[in-house]
Amino acid sequence: MSQFNIEEEIEDIAGGEFERVPVPTSKLKSWKSFLGMYAGEHAAGTEFVIGPLFLTTGVSAFDLIIGLLLGNLLAVLSWRFLTAEIAVKYRLTLYYQLEKICGKNLVTGYNLANGLLFCFLAGAMITVSATAVGIPFNMEMPKLTDTMPNGMTWVIIVLVLGALISLIASKGYETVSKAANWMSPVIVLAFLACGIVALSQLGVGSLSEFWNIWGEGSEPFPGQIKYTFWHVVIWSWFANAAMHVGMSDLSVFRFAKKASSGWTTAAGMYVGHYMAWIAAALLYAVYLKSPEAQGLLSNGEAPTVAPGPLAYNAIGVFGIIAVVLAGWTTANPTIYRAGLAFQAIVPKLSTFWVTIIAGTLATIAGLFPAFAMKLLDFVALYGFILAPFGAIIVFEHFFHKQAGIVKNFAEVANLKFNKAVFFAWAISFGLFYFISVQFDVFLSFVTLPAWLLCGVLFLVFSKRIQKS
Protein backbone atom coordinates (compact mmCIF):
# COMPACT_ATOMS: atom_id res chain seq x y z
CA MET A 1 0.00 0.00 0.00
CA SER A 2 1.41 3.43 -0.96
CA GLN A 3 2.04 6.19 1.61
CA PHE A 4 -0.80 8.17 0.03
CA ASN A 5 -3.25 5.28 0.49
CA ILE A 6 -2.11 4.73 4.08
CA GLU A 7 -2.74 8.37 4.95
CA GLU A 8 -6.07 8.30 3.13
CA GLU A 9 -7.10 5.27 5.19
CA ILE A 10 -5.95 6.95 8.43
CA GLU A 11 -8.04 9.99 7.56
CA ASP A 12 -11.11 7.80 6.91
CA ILE A 13 -10.64 6.02 10.24
CA ALA A 14 -10.19 9.30 12.09
CA GLY A 15 -13.23 10.91 10.51
CA GLY A 16 -11.01 13.30 8.56
CA GLU A 17 -9.58 15.09 11.62
CA PHE A 18 -7.01 12.55 12.98
CA GLU A 19 -8.52 12.52 16.47
CA ARG A 20 -6.66 9.40 17.66
CA VAL A 21 -3.59 9.30 15.41
CA PRO A 22 -0.74 11.74 14.73
CA VAL A 23 -1.38 14.16 11.88
CA PRO A 24 0.41 12.77 8.77
CA THR A 25 3.10 14.83 7.04
CA SER A 26 1.00 15.46 3.95
CA LYS A 27 -1.61 17.30 6.03
CA LEU A 28 0.75 19.74 7.76
CA LYS A 29 0.13 23.44 7.21
CA SER A 30 2.39 26.48 6.92
CA TRP A 31 2.44 29.37 9.35
CA LYS A 32 0.04 31.31 7.06
CA SER A 33 -2.91 29.08 8.04
CA PHE A 34 -2.37 29.87 11.70
CA LEU A 35 -1.78 33.58 11.14
CA GLY A 36 -5.23 34.05 9.65
CA MET A 37 -6.91 31.84 12.21
CA TYR A 38 -5.37 33.55 15.24
CA ALA A 39 -5.83 37.06 13.86
CA GLY A 40 -9.48 36.22 13.18
CA GLU A 41 -10.15 34.35 16.40
CA HIS A 42 -8.67 37.00 18.68
CA ALA A 43 -9.79 40.10 16.79
CA ALA A 44 -13.26 38.94 17.60
CA GLY A 45 -16.67 39.79 18.89
CA THR A 46 -15.68 39.40 22.51
CA GLU A 47 -13.07 42.15 22.02
CA PHE A 48 -16.03 44.51 21.67
CA VAL A 49 -17.04 43.42 25.20
CA ILE A 50 -13.67 43.06 26.93
CA GLY A 51 -12.38 46.52 25.93
CA PRO A 52 -15.37 48.30 27.49
CA LEU A 53 -15.33 45.99 30.53
CA PHE A 54 -11.81 47.19 31.32
CA LEU A 55 -13.22 50.71 31.60
CA THR A 56 -15.89 49.51 34.03
CA THR A 57 -13.05 48.45 36.37
CA GLY A 58 -11.71 52.02 36.56
CA VAL A 59 -8.34 51.15 35.02
CA SER A 60 -5.78 53.93 34.37
CA ALA A 61 -4.14 54.70 31.01
CA PHE A 62 -0.69 53.40 31.99
CA ASP A 63 -2.11 50.23 33.56
CA LEU A 64 -4.21 49.42 30.50
CA ILE A 65 -1.80 50.25 27.67
CA ILE A 66 1.48 49.05 29.18
CA GLY A 67 -0.16 46.19 31.12
CA LEU A 68 -1.69 44.77 27.93
CA LEU A 69 1.66 45.12 26.14
CA LEU A 70 3.40 42.91 28.72
CA GLY A 71 0.57 40.46 29.38
CA ASN A 72 0.08 39.66 25.70
CA LEU A 73 3.83 39.10 25.26
CA LEU A 74 3.74 36.49 28.03
CA ALA A 75 0.81 34.78 26.29
CA VAL A 76 2.69 34.62 22.94
CA LEU A 77 5.78 33.16 24.65
CA SER A 78 3.59 30.52 26.33
CA TRP A 79 2.11 29.45 22.99
CA ARG A 80 5.47 29.39 21.21
CA PHE A 81 7.67 27.61 23.75
CA LEU A 82 5.13 25.35 25.46
CA THR A 83 2.09 24.62 23.30
CA ALA A 84 3.59 24.64 19.79
CA GLU A 85 6.77 22.90 20.96
CA ILE A 86 4.87 19.94 22.39
CA ALA A 87 2.26 19.91 19.59
CA VAL A 88 4.77 19.35 16.77
CA LYS A 89 6.59 16.71 18.83
CA TYR A 90 3.60 14.35 19.17
CA ARG A 91 0.97 15.79 16.75
CA LEU A 92 -1.94 14.57 18.89
CA THR A 93 -5.06 16.30 20.14
CA LEU A 94 -5.02 17.48 23.74
CA TYR A 95 -7.70 14.92 24.54
CA TYR A 96 -5.90 11.88 23.18
CA GLN A 97 -2.58 12.95 24.71
CA LEU A 98 -4.22 13.40 28.11
CA GLU A 99 -5.87 9.99 27.78
CA LYS A 100 -2.44 8.38 27.45
CA ILE A 101 -1.35 10.05 30.71
CA CYS A 102 -4.57 10.15 32.74
CA GLY A 103 -6.49 7.08 31.64
CA LYS A 104 -9.81 6.86 29.82
CA ASN A 105 -12.12 7.33 32.82
CA LEU A 106 -10.36 10.38 34.26
CA VAL A 107 -9.96 12.15 30.95
CA THR A 108 -13.66 11.66 30.21
CA GLY A 109 -14.50 13.98 33.12
CA TYR A 110 -11.94 16.51 31.91
CA ASN A 111 -13.24 16.35 28.33
CA LEU A 112 -16.79 16.93 29.50
CA ALA A 113 -15.79 19.97 31.58
CA ASN A 114 -13.58 21.31 28.80
CA GLY A 115 -16.22 20.86 26.13
CA LEU A 116 -18.92 22.55 28.24
CA LEU A 117 -16.69 25.52 29.09
CA PHE A 118 -15.82 25.92 25.41
CA CYS A 119 -19.55 25.87 24.63
CA PHE A 120 -20.23 28.61 27.20
CA LEU A 121 -17.42 30.69 25.71
CA ALA A 122 -18.75 30.19 22.18
CA GLY A 123 -22.18 31.14 23.51
CA ALA A 124 -20.77 34.52 24.54
CA MET A 125 -19.58 35.02 20.94
CA ILE A 126 -23.08 34.28 19.65
CA THR A 127 -24.47 36.80 22.16
CA VAL A 128 -22.08 39.42 20.81
CA SER A 129 -23.10 38.84 17.19
CA ALA A 130 -26.77 38.94 18.18
CA THR A 131 -26.40 42.50 19.53
CA ALA A 132 -25.43 43.57 16.00
CA VAL A 133 -28.08 41.59 14.11
CA GLY A 134 -30.76 42.97 16.45
CA ILE A 135 -30.15 46.63 15.53
CA PRO A 136 -32.35 46.70 12.38
CA PHE A 137 -35.14 45.04 14.39
CA ASN A 138 -34.93 47.69 17.12
CA MET A 139 -34.22 44.91 19.60
CA GLU A 140 -33.78 45.77 23.28
CA MET A 141 -30.10 45.22 24.13
CA PRO A 142 -29.00 43.17 27.17
CA LYS A 143 -27.78 45.17 30.15
CA LEU A 144 -24.55 44.58 32.06
CA THR A 145 -26.56 42.96 34.87
CA ASP A 146 -28.89 40.85 32.66
CA THR A 147 -28.77 37.06 32.92
CA MET A 148 -31.94 35.90 31.12
CA PRO A 149 -33.19 36.42 27.52
CA ASN A 150 -35.04 39.73 27.27
CA GLY A 151 -37.52 38.93 24.49
CA MET A 152 -38.59 36.70 21.61
CA THR A 153 -36.63 38.73 19.03
CA TRP A 154 -33.45 38.05 20.98
CA VAL A 155 -34.21 34.31 21.14
CA ILE A 156 -34.91 33.99 17.38
CA ILE A 157 -31.76 35.89 16.37
CA VAL A 158 -29.52 33.83 18.67
CA LEU A 159 -31.01 30.53 17.41
CA VAL A 160 -30.48 31.45 13.74
CA LEU A 161 -26.92 32.68 14.31
CA GLY A 162 -26.06 29.61 16.40
CA ALA A 163 -27.26 27.26 13.65
CA LEU A 164 -25.18 28.99 10.96
CA ILE A 165 -22.02 29.10 13.11
CA SER A 166 -22.40 25.44 14.10
CA LEU A 167 -22.67 24.35 10.46
CA ILE A 168 -19.42 26.14 9.56
CA ALA A 169 -17.58 24.64 12.54
CA SER A 170 -18.87 21.14 11.73
CA LYS A 171 -17.04 21.17 8.38
CA GLY A 172 -13.70 20.70 10.19
CA TYR A 173 -10.40 22.55 10.54
CA GLU A 174 -10.03 23.31 6.81
CA THR A 175 -13.31 25.23 6.71
CA VAL A 176 -12.67 26.95 10.06
CA SER A 177 -9.25 28.11 8.85
CA LYS A 178 -10.57 29.33 5.48
CA ALA A 179 -13.43 31.23 7.13
CA ALA A 180 -11.00 32.93 9.52
CA ASN A 181 -8.60 33.89 6.71
CA TRP A 182 -11.43 35.42 4.72
CA MET A 183 -13.09 37.31 7.56
CA SER A 184 -10.14 38.49 9.65
CA PRO A 185 -8.94 41.37 7.38
CA VAL A 186 -12.48 42.81 7.38
CA ILE A 187 -12.71 42.58 11.18
CA VAL A 188 -9.27 44.09 11.77
CA LEU A 189 -10.10 46.99 9.46
CA ALA A 190 -13.37 47.54 11.35
CA PHE A 191 -11.62 47.69 14.73
CA LEU A 192 -9.08 50.14 13.35
CA ALA A 193 -11.83 52.29 11.85
CA CYS A 194 -13.78 52.21 15.12
CA GLY A 195 -10.73 53.37 17.06
CA ILE A 196 -10.01 56.24 14.64
CA VAL A 197 -13.66 57.41 14.59
CA ALA A 198 -13.88 57.20 18.39
CA LEU A 199 -10.71 59.31 18.76
CA SER A 200 -12.29 61.90 16.48
CA GLN A 201 -15.54 61.85 18.48
CA LEU A 202 -13.55 62.31 21.69
CA GLY A 203 -11.69 65.25 20.16
CA VAL A 204 -8.27 63.64 20.56
CA GLY A 205 -5.52 65.44 18.63
CA SER A 206 -2.36 64.44 20.48
CA LEU A 207 -0.79 61.61 22.48
CA SER A 208 -1.32 63.45 25.76
CA GLU A 209 -5.03 63.89 25.00
CA PHE A 210 -5.26 60.18 24.14
CA TRP A 211 -3.51 59.30 27.40
CA ASN A 212 -5.90 61.54 29.35
CA ILE A 213 -8.98 59.57 28.22
CA TRP A 214 -8.28 57.17 31.07
CA GLY A 215 -5.87 59.38 33.00
CA GLU A 216 -5.21 58.04 36.47
CA GLY A 217 -8.28 55.83 36.32
CA SER A 218 -11.50 56.12 38.26
CA GLU A 219 -13.68 54.27 40.71
CA PRO A 220 -15.01 50.97 39.31
CA PHE A 221 -18.63 50.76 38.19
CA PRO A 222 -21.20 49.16 40.52
CA GLY A 223 -20.56 45.41 40.84
CA GLN A 224 -17.00 45.63 39.42
CA ILE A 225 -13.59 45.45 41.15
CA LYS A 226 -10.76 47.96 40.67
CA TYR A 227 -8.08 46.82 38.17
CA THR A 228 -4.43 47.79 38.67
CA PHE A 229 -1.39 47.28 36.41
CA TRP A 230 -0.91 43.71 37.64
CA HIS A 231 -4.59 42.88 37.21
CA VAL A 232 -4.28 43.84 33.53
CA VAL A 233 -0.95 42.00 32.99
CA ILE A 234 -1.97 38.74 34.64
CA TRP A 235 -5.54 38.71 33.31
CA SER A 236 -4.40 39.34 29.72
CA TRP A 237 -1.72 36.65 30.04
CA PHE A 238 -4.20 34.07 31.30
CA ALA A 239 -7.23 35.18 29.28
CA ASN A 240 -6.35 32.22 27.05
CA ALA A 241 -4.75 30.09 29.76
CA ALA A 242 -6.71 27.01 28.73
CA MET A 243 -5.37 27.34 25.19
CA HIS A 244 -1.64 27.87 25.88
CA VAL A 245 -0.49 26.75 29.35
CA GLY A 246 -3.60 24.55 29.45
CA MET A 247 -2.50 22.93 26.16
CA SER A 248 -5.88 23.02 24.38
CA ASP A 249 -4.20 24.40 21.28
CA LEU A 250 -2.24 21.19 20.88
CA SER A 251 -5.30 20.28 18.82
CA VAL A 252 -4.57 23.23 16.50
CA PHE A 253 -0.76 23.31 16.35
CA ARG A 254 -0.52 19.54 15.68
CA PHE A 255 -1.11 20.61 12.06
CA ALA A 256 1.91 22.98 12.08
CA LYS A 257 5.04 22.14 10.10
CA LYS A 258 7.30 23.78 12.69
CA ALA A 259 7.03 24.97 16.29
CA SER A 260 7.89 28.47 15.05
CA SER A 261 4.26 28.70 13.86
CA GLY A 262 3.55 29.47 17.51
CA TRP A 263 4.76 33.03 16.87
CA THR A 264 1.66 33.60 14.71
CA THR A 265 -0.35 33.96 17.92
CA ALA A 266 1.19 37.44 18.16
CA ALA A 267 -1.21 38.43 15.36
CA GLY A 268 -4.09 37.57 17.63
CA MET A 269 -2.59 39.13 20.73
CA TYR A 270 -1.41 42.46 19.34
CA VAL A 271 -4.07 42.99 16.71
CA GLY A 272 -6.92 41.55 18.75
CA HIS A 273 -6.00 41.65 22.41
CA TYR A 274 -4.21 44.97 22.12
CA MET A 275 -5.39 47.18 19.28
CA ALA A 276 -8.95 45.82 19.29
CA TRP A 277 -9.39 45.99 23.08
CA ILE A 278 -8.16 49.60 23.13
CA ALA A 279 -10.33 50.53 20.10
CA ALA A 280 -13.40 48.99 21.78
CA ALA A 281 -12.57 50.81 25.02
CA LEU A 282 -12.47 54.07 23.05
CA LEU A 283 -15.95 53.32 21.64
CA TYR A 284 -17.23 52.84 25.17
CA ALA A 285 -15.51 56.06 26.29
CA VAL A 286 -17.57 57.87 23.65
CA TYR A 287 -20.78 56.22 24.88
CA LEU A 288 -20.01 57.08 28.51
CA LYS A 289 -20.20 60.78 27.62
CA SER A 290 -23.76 60.39 26.29
CA PRO A 291 -26.75 61.63 28.35
CA GLU A 292 -28.08 58.05 28.56
CA ALA A 293 -24.87 56.70 30.13
CA GLN A 294 -24.48 59.68 32.43
CA GLY A 295 -28.06 59.22 33.63
CA LEU A 296 -27.44 55.56 34.45
CA LEU A 297 -24.21 56.37 36.30
CA SER A 298 -25.90 59.10 38.34
CA ASN A 299 -28.49 56.50 39.42
CA GLY A 300 -25.74 54.10 40.52
CA GLU A 301 -26.25 51.76 37.54
CA ALA A 302 -23.62 50.43 35.10
CA PRO A 303 -24.23 51.56 31.49
CA THR A 304 -24.98 48.89 28.89
CA VAL A 305 -22.07 47.10 27.16
CA ALA A 306 -23.64 46.04 23.83
CA PRO A 307 -21.05 45.60 21.02
CA GLY A 308 -23.50 45.99 18.12
CA PRO A 309 -24.73 49.51 18.95
CA LEU A 310 -21.22 50.65 19.95
CA ALA A 311 -19.82 49.67 16.52
CA TYR A 312 -22.90 50.91 14.64
CA ASN A 313 -22.70 54.34 16.26
CA ALA A 314 -19.08 54.62 15.09
CA ILE A 315 -19.03 53.18 11.55
CA GLY A 316 -22.64 52.43 10.66
CA VAL A 317 -23.70 49.28 8.79
CA PHE A 318 -20.05 48.22 8.41
CA GLY A 319 -19.95 48.04 12.22
CA ILE A 320 -22.91 45.65 12.28
CA ILE A 321 -21.26 43.41 9.67
CA ALA A 322 -17.95 43.48 11.53
CA VAL A 323 -19.47 42.48 14.87
CA VAL A 324 -21.37 39.57 13.28
CA LEU A 325 -18.26 38.31 11.47
CA ALA A 326 -16.14 38.82 14.61
CA GLY A 327 -18.48 36.60 16.61
CA TRP A 328 -18.28 33.91 13.92
CA THR A 329 -14.48 33.79 13.74
CA THR A 330 -14.20 33.13 17.46
CA ALA A 331 -17.21 30.87 17.87
CA ASN A 332 -16.16 28.64 14.94
CA PRO A 333 -12.82 27.35 16.32
CA THR A 334 -14.22 27.33 19.87
CA ILE A 335 -17.10 25.05 18.86
CA TYR A 336 -14.63 22.96 16.82
CA ARG A 337 -12.50 22.46 19.95
CA ALA A 338 -15.58 21.60 22.01
CA GLY A 339 -16.57 19.01 19.40
CA LEU A 340 -13.15 17.36 19.68
CA ALA A 341 -13.56 17.22 23.47
CA PHE A 342 -16.94 15.51 23.17
CA GLN A 343 -15.65 13.15 20.49
CA ALA A 344 -13.00 11.89 22.92
CA ILE A 345 -15.92 10.79 25.14
CA VAL A 346 -17.97 9.23 22.32
CA PRO A 347 -15.37 8.36 19.63
CA LYS A 348 -17.90 6.48 17.49
CA LEU A 349 -19.72 9.72 16.70
CA SER A 350 -18.38 11.58 13.65
CA THR A 351 -16.70 14.98 13.92
CA PHE A 352 -19.72 16.50 12.19
CA TRP A 353 -22.26 15.32 14.75
CA VAL A 354 -20.25 16.05 17.89
CA THR A 355 -19.62 19.56 16.56
CA ILE A 356 -23.34 20.02 15.91
CA ILE A 357 -24.01 18.93 19.51
CA ALA A 358 -21.39 21.41 20.76
CA GLY A 359 -22.90 24.14 18.60
CA THR A 360 -26.37 23.43 19.98
CA LEU A 361 -25.11 23.77 23.55
CA ALA A 362 -23.26 26.98 22.62
CA THR A 363 -26.43 28.39 21.08
CA ILE A 364 -28.43 27.64 24.23
CA ALA A 365 -25.70 29.36 26.28
CA GLY A 366 -25.85 32.33 23.91
CA LEU A 367 -29.46 32.93 24.89
CA PHE A 368 -28.23 34.00 28.35
CA PRO A 369 -26.38 37.36 28.22
CA ALA A 370 -24.58 36.73 31.53
CA PHE A 371 -21.80 34.76 29.81
CA ALA A 372 -20.89 37.85 27.74
CA MET A 373 -21.66 40.53 30.33
CA LYS A 374 -19.52 38.79 32.99
CA LEU A 375 -16.83 37.78 30.51
CA LEU A 376 -13.84 39.00 32.57
CA ASP A 377 -14.88 36.82 35.50
CA PHE A 378 -15.87 33.84 33.36
CA VAL A 379 -12.60 33.81 31.40
CA ALA A 380 -10.58 33.96 34.63
CA LEU A 381 -12.52 31.00 36.11
CA TYR A 382 -12.38 29.03 32.87
CA GLY A 383 -8.59 29.33 32.68
CA PHE A 384 -8.14 28.55 36.36
CA ILE A 385 -10.09 25.29 36.10
CA LEU A 386 -8.47 23.94 32.92
CA ALA A 387 -4.90 25.31 32.95
CA PRO A 388 -3.50 22.93 35.62
CA PHE A 389 -4.23 19.93 33.37
CA GLY A 390 -1.88 21.45 30.83
CA ALA A 391 0.83 21.43 33.50
CA ILE A 392 0.53 17.62 33.57
CA ILE A 393 1.55 17.44 29.89
CA VAL A 394 4.24 20.13 30.18
CA PHE A 395 5.92 18.72 33.27
CA GLU A 396 5.87 15.17 31.92
CA HIS A 397 7.33 16.29 28.58
CA PHE A 398 10.18 18.38 30.03
CA PHE A 399 10.92 16.67 33.36
CA HIS A 400 10.01 12.97 33.11
CA LYS A 401 13.66 11.90 32.90
CA GLN A 402 14.77 14.02 35.86
CA ALA A 403 11.82 12.77 37.91
CA GLY A 404 12.44 9.17 36.85
CA ILE A 405 8.86 8.49 35.76
CA VAL A 406 7.43 6.59 32.78
CA LYS A 407 5.78 8.74 30.09
CA ASN A 408 2.16 8.01 29.14
CA PHE A 409 1.91 5.79 32.21
CA ALA A 410 -1.85 5.15 31.90
CA GLU A 411 -1.33 3.75 28.40
CA VAL A 412 1.74 1.71 29.37
CA ALA A 413 0.17 0.26 32.54
CA ASN A 414 -3.34 0.03 31.02
CA LEU A 415 -4.79 2.32 33.72
CA LYS A 416 -8.27 3.77 33.36
CA PHE A 417 -7.78 6.29 36.17
CA ASN A 418 -4.36 7.76 37.04
CA LYS A 419 -4.59 8.87 40.67
CA ALA A 420 -1.42 10.95 40.37
CA VAL A 421 -3.16 13.28 37.91
CA PHE A 422 -6.41 13.50 39.86
CA PHE A 423 -4.84 14.31 43.22
CA ALA A 424 -2.36 16.79 41.69
CA TRP A 425 -5.22 18.73 40.06
CA ALA A 426 -7.64 18.44 43.01
CA ILE A 427 -5.11 19.67 45.58
CA SER A 428 -3.82 22.57 43.48
CA PHE A 429 -7.32 23.63 42.40
CA GLY A 430 -8.84 23.28 45.86
CA LEU A 431 -6.03 25.06 47.70
CA PHE A 432 -5.81 28.12 45.47
CA TYR A 433 -9.54 28.46 44.89
CA PHE A 434 -9.94 28.49 48.68
CA ILE A 435 -7.25 31.19 48.93
CA SER A 436 -8.99 33.25 46.25
CA VAL A 437 -12.41 33.06 47.93
CA GLN A 438 -11.31 33.21 51.57
CA PHE A 439 -8.84 36.09 51.19
CA ASP A 440 -10.54 37.85 48.25
CA VAL A 441 -7.56 37.31 45.92
CA PHE A 442 -8.09 38.04 42.21
CA LEU A 443 -8.56 34.58 40.64
CA SER A 444 -6.09 35.16 37.79
CA PHE A 445 -3.38 35.89 40.38
CA VAL A 446 -3.52 32.28 41.61
CA THR A 447 -3.70 30.59 38.18
CA LEU A 448 0.08 30.39 37.75
CA PRO A 449 0.76 29.09 41.31
CA ALA A 450 -1.99 26.45 40.83
CA TRP A 451 -0.47 25.45 37.46
CA LEU A 452 3.05 25.10 38.90
CA LEU A 453 1.89 23.20 41.99
CA CYS A 454 -0.17 20.80 39.87
CA GLY A 455 2.84 20.00 37.68
CA VAL A 456 5.17 19.42 40.66
CA LEU A 457 2.62 17.30 42.54
CA PHE A 458 2.05 15.21 39.41
CA LEU A 459 5.75 14.34 39.23
CA VAL A 460 5.90 13.54 42.98
CA PHE A 461 2.73 11.42 43.00
CA SER A 462 3.67 9.68 39.73
CA LYS A 463 7.05 8.59 41.11
CA ARG A 464 5.41 7.20 44.24
CA ILE A 465 2.59 5.41 42.38
CA GLN A 466 4.81 4.01 39.64
CA LYS A 467 7.20 2.55 42.21
CA SER A 468 4.35 0.69 43.86
Automatic annotation (TrEMBL):
**What keywords were assigned to this record?**
Membrane, Transmembrane, Transmembrane helix
Single Gene Ontology MF annotation: cytosine transmembrane transporter activity
Write out the GO cellular component annotations.
plasma membrane
Xref: Gene3D superfamilies: Hydantoin permease
Could you tell me the superkingdom of the organism this chain comes from? Bacteria
Enumerate the transmembrane spans.
61-82, 116-139, 151-170, 182-207, 227-246, 267-290, 310-331, 352-372, 378-399, 420-436, 442-461
Record-given protein name = Purine-cytosine permease-like protein
